[in-house]
């Protein structure tokens, strides 16, 4: 007879980062952790951080215990040796260990799975996004295969990610569940747009070459009368500003180093069109958040974006080839702006983080059932 399902779970999460550090993985982890804690579960997050002011701190944020470890600026992969050690040590102290990101050495904490049930959310992109990152990932592949094999359950954020993972690690499909990312729909829709902005194009994401923000800037000379706002953090910031200046767009392109979540919600509500020309995504969170805000989207035609457009954006997205030049991209952006002018903002239903958290918790319970573990009372 299997043990009764627990009313309260003890969950340890290992993540390459956590807010106020920003990124898709960080946002996913925080949104789910907060909701689990609000529901009564004991949630502890072990996270890396590049911020010296946060290293070594332990805080309780929205009911979640967050302990931070120093992460190192390794090209193409987050490296935090102390975080790996802490994750391995913590594995036996709770009911479930949930490890995030194949593309971070902290993922090696999944190797502790022999002592306790482990769930892995890989946020998998395949190889790295630069020559140096691809070399690093090539050397990492053996360890990566071990961590994928060690997980009792693998949660992918899209079917496209799940297919890529199965292609590179045959046999994992039998342990894989797809739970899409969500959006803070109520908070986004309640946000006030910035006043008197005029036609606004928005790009959101890490300021890294693979995100393709430079290509959006290059298209803006052919989108007269509109301004571009780029929101993110990363090494491309100064290069994007310089590119805008060379193209004579300094007064129409604004690169924000990073913004707090409420401010981002206001930009989502202000924008008429969100553009993502990313070359690699496991899901594509920004387009879903934009759709929640009523914003049309222009997206690179990659597997994750095709899936998001089909399943969640309901005709409000335009897909363009990933290698599209400035003229083609500008044409798509102008068309989306004109459609907004004619028909107003879109109204679509997108996944909500409440649903994501509930489905993630159900995975935890299924893993505990399979292991014959009753969890905390």
From TrEMBL:
Membrane spanning residue stretches: none
Superkingdom of this protein's organism: Bacteria
GO MF term list: glycosyltransferase activity
Family matches, as InterPro entries: Glyco_trans_1, Glyco_trans_4-like_N
Keywords noted in UniProt: Glycosyltransferase, Transferase
Ranges where the Glycosyl transferase family domain occurs: 187-340
Domain Glycosyltransferase subfamily 4-like N-terminal: 23-185
Record PANTHER family: GLYCOSYLTRANSFERASE (PTHR12526), PHOSPHATIDYL-MYO-INOSITOL MANNOSYLTRANSFERASE (PTHR12526:SF613)
Protein name: Glycosyltransferase involved in cell wall biosynthesis
